[in-house]
Amino acid sequence: MTSVTPVATTGGSVHQFVIAVKETVKKRRLFGPDDHVLVALSGGPDSTALLAALAALERAGELARLSAVHVDHGLRPGSAAEADACAELCARLDVAFHRRAVEVARGNVQSRARLARYAALRAVALEAGATRIATGHTRTDQAETVLHRLLRGAGARGLGAIPPKRGLLVRPLLDRSRAEVRAFLRDEGLPWLEDPSNESPRYTRNRIRRELLPALARFNPAFEEALARTADLLRDDDRALERIARREAGALAWADARRVRVLPLAVRRRAVRRLWKAATGSRRGLSASHVEAVLGLFDRAGPGRISLPGDREACLGGDRLWIGRQPEEALARRRRGRPQKG
Ligand SMILES: Nc1ncnc2c1ncn2[C@@H]1O[C@H](COP(=O)(O)OP(=O)(O)OP(=O)(O)O)[C@@H](O)[C@H]1O
């Protein structure tokens, strides 16, 4: 291994950025002294700063082991060189490095690349015996995500945006801004890679960064903290409502109309979504209008049924609300009723 460059110490004292990251780790209980943390390293500024901060925390005994992984999506001609730059950085910081190549099918490339990346991160964590996977999402990413979802319309679930912790995944930079990240990297003399696609106005996300965030900063210079706080609060609300919905989903399933009618609408909606997920195992949620249609069954005097996506249906009758596949004859009837193509 190459010689270790002292990172995150300025004049013998620990950099303020590292202290702030440590506070987030403690406050949000992201990992402890026994954990092996695997950093998802793109080579961009955020994950580079994350790696350097966690290397300093490893030296201070705040975690047991640190390693890093770069996933090469093979989507850009220079992608192998990016992996090499990550390997170099890890050698400089004395951190064990893994690289993984994945194939991304054509189509919705961004979302497919993300799915392939998270699958690869989990596989490497398993092989390396890592107990946490850390990504470089910052408070600025959080604000962008909240705004992006707000523009399309979302409830508490969506506006809760990026969680600091989910399963193995942790995000120790979620209380730090992109500006703080850059200042830290400059102070430490650390190199990073710029992603050219971050500049393209083709993506709404980039326009939010370049146009909307500066406009909002003129109304409230601390709007980023404000949005992050909103996301934290909504995530807590969402969790509380989900807990109640889990308890009350039975009232819907057993068609207990009297009980269903007194449940708050927010709980009823969540309970329908839970039943849909349990019945279909589908990652795709039910649209708001379908949720309302299912709830509408409880307003009728007698039994009823409605069609749902994926040839599914919801039937309310007797003492059950049933969500499942439509019977063959009903599908055949519907197909006969459809206008011929061409
Ligand atoms: N190719 C990759 N390999 C490993 N981890 C990645 C990769 N791309 C992204 N990540 C992880 O996901 C996080 C968020 O991804 P995003 O695409 O927003 O990052 P980026 O802008 O490419 O780089 P960074 O967040 O490091 O500045 C990154 O901070 C990093 O932890």
Can you describe this structure?
The structure is a single chain. This protein is 52% helix and 14% strand. The protein is α/β, with parallel strands linked by helices and 342 residues long. It folds into two domains: 161 residues, HUPs (Rossmann fold, 3-Layer(aba) Sandwich); 84 residues, Uridine Diphospho-n-acetylenolpyruvylglucosamine Reductase, domain 3. The protein has a six-stranded mixed β-sheet with strand order 5-4-3-6-8-7, with helices on both faces. It has a three-stranded antiparallel β-sheet with strand order 9-10-11. A two-stranded antiparallel ribbon has the order 1-2. Strand 1 and strand 2 form a beta hairpin. It is elongated, with a radius of gyration of 24 Å. It starts with 8 loop residues before the first strand and ends in a 5-residue tail after the last helix.
Question: What is the topology?
Answer:
Elements (H helix, E strand, L loop, with lengths): L8 E2 L2 E2 L1 H12 L8 E5 L4 H15 L5 E8 L6 H15 L2 E6 L7 H20 L3 E3 L4 H14 L3 H4 L5 E2 L2 E2 L7 H11 L15 H16 L3 H31 L3 H6 L2 H16 L7 H9 L7 E5 L3 E6 L2 E6 L2 H10 L5
Parallel strand pairs: 3-4, 3-6, 4-5, 6-8
Antiparallel strand pairs: 1-2, 7-8, 9-10, 10-11
Helix pairs in contact: 1-2, 2-7, 5-8, 5-9, 9-11, 11-12
This protein binds adenosine-5'-triphosphate.
Adenosine-5'-triphosphate binds next to helix 2 and strand 4.
EC number: 6.3.4.19
Enzyme class: ligase
Keywords: ATP-binding, Cytoplasm, Ligase, Nucleotide-binding, tRNA processing
